[in-house]
């Protein structure tokens, strides 16, 4: 293993882009998870969300791979739950 192995993944960035069927679905999901992302108490990972038409883009900036993975898992669960709620109501 290289000497600096522990520093290789000391900063991880990623982007998730979701293309919804329509603008309405994208807006509902955006509004449903926006506050979750803004009020999340995790100090090792920051996530930001933006919407353009029916595209939802989530940017994740983490201090390490563990917090990056945890953020992705949480975000995917929030989106999945929100999407299931839309389909239950409509």
Chart the SSEs and their pairings:
Elements: H1 5-8, E1 12-19, H2 23-39, E2 45-52, E3 55-62, H3 65-89
Antiparallel strand pairs: 1-3, 2-3
Helix pairs in contact: 2-3
Structure notes:
With 90 residues, this protein is of the alpha+beta class. The chain has one domain (9-89): Alpha-D-phosphohexomutase, C-terminal domain (TATA-Binding Protein, 2-Layer Sandwich). Helices cover 51% and strands 27% of the residues. It has a three-stranded antiparallel sheet, covered by helices on one side. The longest helix has 25 residues, at 65-89. The termini are far apart.
**Which geometry do the CA atoms define?**
elongated
Q: Could you tell me the mean pLDDT? A: 88
Please name the CATH architecture.
2-Layer Sandwich
Helix content: 40-55%
Alpha carbon gap, first and last residue: 54 Å
Count of domain modules: 1
What oligomerization state is this entry in?
single chain
Number of strand elements: 3
Strand content: 25-35%
Number of helices: 3
Side-by-side strand order of the widest sheet: 1-3-2
What class, by secondary structure content? alpha+beta
Classify the fold: give the CATH topology: TATA-Binding Protein
Biggest sheet features: 3 strands, antiparallel
Low-confidence stretches: none
């Amino acid at each position: 293993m290289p000497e600096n192995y522990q520093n290789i993944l000391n900063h991880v960035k990623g982007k998730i882009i979701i293309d919804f069927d329509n603008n309405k679905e994208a807006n509902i999901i955006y509004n449903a998870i926006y506050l979750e992302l803004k009020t999340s108490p995790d100090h090792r990972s920051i996530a930001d969300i933006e919407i353009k038409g029916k595209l939802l883009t989530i940017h994740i900036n983490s201090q390490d791979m563990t917090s990056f993975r945890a953020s992705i898992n949480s975000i995917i669960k929030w989106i999945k739950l929100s999407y299931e709620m839309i389909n239950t109501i409509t």
